[in-house]
Amino acid sequence: MVKCRDVMEVMERMAPKRLAEAWDNPGLLVGSPEDEVRRIFVCLDVREQMVERAQREGFQMIVAHHPVIFRGLKKLRTDLPDGRLLGALLRANIAVFAAHTNLDCAEGGVNDVLAARIGLVPETVAPLGAETLSESLGRVGKLSRSMDAREFALQVKKRLGAATVRFVSGGNHPVEKIGLCSGSGAEFIERAAFLGCDAFVTGDVRYHDAQRAAALGIHVIDAGHFATEQPVVEIVAMRLTEEFSGKVEIVADDTARDFFETVSEA
Ligand SMILES: [Zn+2]
Q1: What distance in angstroms lies between residue 225's CA and the mean position of ligand 1's atoms?
Q2: DSSP code of 181?
């Protein structure tokens, strides 16, 4: 019989908790390590409609990237979204585990999956952070050939299956050396520019981030928080399947969509 604690151990090897940022809240957030697990659902976010699906399809555990409890919890009001979700999870007896910034940093985690997906040559990929840290947020790496910056932006859009990407021009230069950070990584634009990156790929870029990038002469491709992180879901599911083959059934969420839509005239 596989228990929650067995899944926690495998996840700890995949994304060691020590790699998480100090403000983060990874780990088992709902349920008990002693809970029995026969089916696991892997996803980016725990959304309310998933509880219903989990009950219908017999999942005892959800492994998510974003922590379902993040800020300090001072009440469990079921008339408000957070309490309603947690209440539903408890009533349905569904355990929830999160691997967040620890999965971002981990080797083979969110950033490495993103780097591979957008076409960086694996042998060239290194952490974007301090050189002494082998595992940190963000990556830097090279494309197999130099290309036009907008052509690369389109490559990112296509390979991530994003509805749209936003492009900030850093000048007329082509791109070969690329910095990236999955999710919200605009804080690393300076670092990427300092390391000589031609372009930086991330999500959640704001107006003044774009202004800074343009001034630094680095192109920025904002492919969205969702699209830069969603690819890790099937990789985590695959690795759990390898670990628990025959004992636990793992299902990767393939129905989640970005909260943002692009509205344009037909
Ligand atoms: Zn995220």
Answers
A1: 6
A2: E
Supply 128's token pair.
């974007």
As given in the structure block, the two tokens for residue 235 are 């990789």
Rounded distance from Cα 110 to ligand 1 centre (Å): 9
What domain range includes position 86? 4-102
CATH code of 204's domain: 3.40.1390.30
56: its two tokens: 């219908």
Domain boundary among 69, 102, 135: 102
Q: Ligand 1 center to residue 183 CA distance, Å?
A: 4
- 92 domain-assigned: yes
Query: What φ, ψ does residue 166 adopt, rounded to 5°?
Result: -100, 135
Say which residues have a Cβ less than 8 Å from residue 117's Cβ, sequence separation at least 6.
Answer: 159, 160, 231
- Ligand 1 centroid to 95 CA: how many Å? 20
Total-model pTM: 0.95
| 237, part of any domain | no
Q: How high is the mean pLDDT in each 10-residue block of the chain (266 residues)?
A: 97 96 96 98 95 94 97 92 96 97 95 97 90 75 98 98 97 98 96 97 98 98 98 97 96 94 89
Last residue of a domain, one of 102, 124, 155: 102
The rounded Å distance from CA 259 to ligand 1 centre is: 13
Q: Looking up tokens 């389109």, which residue turns up?
A: 154
